[in-house]
Amino acid sequence: MYTNEFEEAFSNFLERHEYDEAESYLFSMVRLAFAAGWKAAGGAPPKAERLFELIVTPKTETPAESD
């Protein structure tokens, strides 16, 4: 249905940072709309959650570093 030229151009578009930013905004809008509908239907609003947590392990000193 689509030409190879179209597929290559679309692939290049998807690899751009502008697409990632637009996708992020679209996801946020869909989530907000869902949360509003959920709340309107009597559900509890979603709680804010951490998406990730960085775990930093303490650096152990080697004998050469302690001098």
Rg, Å, rounded: 23 Å
Topology as a string of helices (H) and strands (E): HH
Low-confidence stretches: none
Structural class by helix and strand composition: mainly alpha
- What is the first-to-last residue Cα distance? 70 Å
Regarding quaternary structure, what we see is: single chain
**Percent range for helical residues?**
40-55%
Envelope shape: flat
Q: How many beta-strand elements? A: 0
Mean model confidence by pLDDT: 86
Q: Figure out the total of helices.
A: 2
How much strand content do the residues show?
under 5%
How would you describe this protein?
The chain has 67 residues and is an all-alpha fold. It has two helices and no strands. It has helices at residues 4-14, 17-40. It starts with a helix and ends in a 27-residue tail after the last helix.
Short summary of the structure?
The protein has two helices and no strands. The protein has helices at 4-14, 17-40.
Question: How are the SSEs ordered, and which strands pair?
Answer:
Blueprint (H helix, E strand, L loop, with lengths): L3 H11 L2 H24 L27
